[in-house]
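User: Hi! Is it possible to get a structure for several chains at once, not just one? Here's what I have:
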Amino acid sequence: MTEAIDPTTLTVGVLGGTGAQGKGLALRWAKAGIRLIIGSRAAERAEASAAEHCQLTGTENITGADNATCAAQADVVLAAVPWESHADTLTGLVEPLRGKIFIDCVNPLGFDKNRPVPAPGRGGQRRPAGRAVAPRDPGDGRVP
Ligand SMILES: NC(=O)c1ccc[n+]([C@@H]2O[C@H](COP(=O)([O-])OP(=O)(O)OC[C@H]3O[C@@H](n4cnc5c(N)ncnc54)[C@H](OP(=O)(O)O)[C@@H]3O)[C@@H](O)[C@H]2O)c1
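Assistant: Yes, the chains can be modeled jointly so their relative placement is included. Here is the combined structure:
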């Protein structure tokens, strides 16, 4: 049986962690004692978010970096970018994501005032963007 991993020994990177979904997860993980790297297309935006997240959690567990550095330095990487940029973002990060545990929370959805709606131009169909990095055979769960 695989041994359980102590999550507090891991660094989790959040691609697009400057957005609402990434922030919500990052704050909770940081409070649980996990080290976080907030990723962004712009390192300075990520650093500003990380500073705010540290203040909100009362921890020093969170730093910021551009998405490629975030992916390279983390053990576990969460994709939390909009559907429209999902494929391009992941395709550009194939190399830094090798060997990482990859979590994808991106949905082909947008939101109107009251409810989720299909993302523009996608008709609600999931495009397999995660295949840019995710293995078809999960193996040990890491990106090959
Ligand atoms: N599974 C679930 O339960 C669940 C729930 C809610 C949301 N979601 C999914 O989580 C994802 C993120 O949601 P969100 O509301 O946090 O999204 P968001 O705020 O619109 O975007 C998140 C971040 O993505 C980056 N981004 C924006 N446009 C981009 C582009 N063209 N290329 C690359 N990066 C871009 C931005 O960061 P920078 O400008 O700093 O790069 C932004 O802060 C969505 O795909 C949504 O469907 C899932």
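The chain has a mean pLDDT of 87. Residues 16, 18-22, 40-42, 45, 80-83, 85, 89, 105-107, 109 surround NAP (CB under 6 Å).

User: Great, thank you!
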